Amino acid sequence: MSKKPINSQKSPGKHHSNLKSKMVFKDRDGLGAYTADPFAHERVIFNNDTSVIIQDMFPKSSVHLLVLPKSERNLLHPFVAFEDPELLADIKVEVERAKKMVANELRRKYGKLSKSEQPRIQARDADEPPDVLPPGRDWMKEIITGIHAVPSMNHLHVHVMSREMYSDHLKRSAHYNSFHTPFLVPLEKFPLAKDDPIRLVGHGPWHTVDLVCWRCKRNFGNKMAKFKVHLAEEHDEWKRE
């Protein structure tokens, strides 16, 4: 994603002065720095009273954002934190905002290559463009969202990302399987019932689960190097759909 994406916004939130701290955020607490002082970080692309949206430092797909709530509950496990209806409602609004950002960025990156996008491009570039452009490709359908059943970072965060899993940072099987197995819990599943089996999803080990292509469903077992070559091929075809 570009460093200054369209539709980014950095507006001061009412909790800014309360959250700003001299604490050093590192390791599993690293995400806390972004809500504590959003204005100090280039990765922050949106900031308001309830949330911060950032670019993931180690993206696992071509566009990968994180939505971080500004909440006193943001150190709770998401299964517990999202039992708060106000927090859940707020985060759903901001996740929709992040999805639009991802969709816009996908259109910017791949629109010229996409077959489905051509009627929109042709109408836009016509000598007399219509008042309303054709919808073009539905990039929103190319987005996955959710939280990890066992988050790797302590501060509450929701992943909003393109689903094609094309990235130099995708290096291990667990990187892939953490987004394409039940380990990623969709936001629409919340709040969870007390007896919801999702609560039993644990650490895995997810590196032992077979690598199955998100697009063609071909099973690559544990052959990560071969699988990454395949993902690059699928990415090239996917962006041209």
UniProtKB/TrEMBL annotation:
Keywords, alphabetical: DNA-binding, Metal-binding, Nucleus, Zinc
Location of region: Disordered: 1-20, 113-132
Biological process (GO), any one: single strand break repair
GO molecular function: DNA 5'-adenosine monophosphate hydrolase activity; double-stranded RNA binding; metal ion binding; mismatched DNA binding; single-strand break-containing DNA binding; single-stranded DNA binding
InterPro entries named in the record: HIT-like, HIT-like_sf, Znf-C2HE
The keyword Metal-binding is annotated on this UniProt entry: yes
Keyword check for Thylakoid: no
Stretches assigned to the HIT domain: 42-164
GO cellular component: nucleus
Pfam families listed in its UniProt record: HIT, zf-C2HE
Boundaries of every Aprataxin C2HE/C2H2/C2HC zinc finger domain copy: 181-236
Biased composition annotated in UniProt, kind: Polar residues: 1-11
Cell compartment(s), UniProt: Nucleus
Biased composition (Basic and acidic residues): 114-127
PANTHER family per UniProt: APRATAXIN, APRATAXIN-RELATED
Protein name: HIT-like protein
Organism of provenance: Aureobasidium pullulans EXF-150
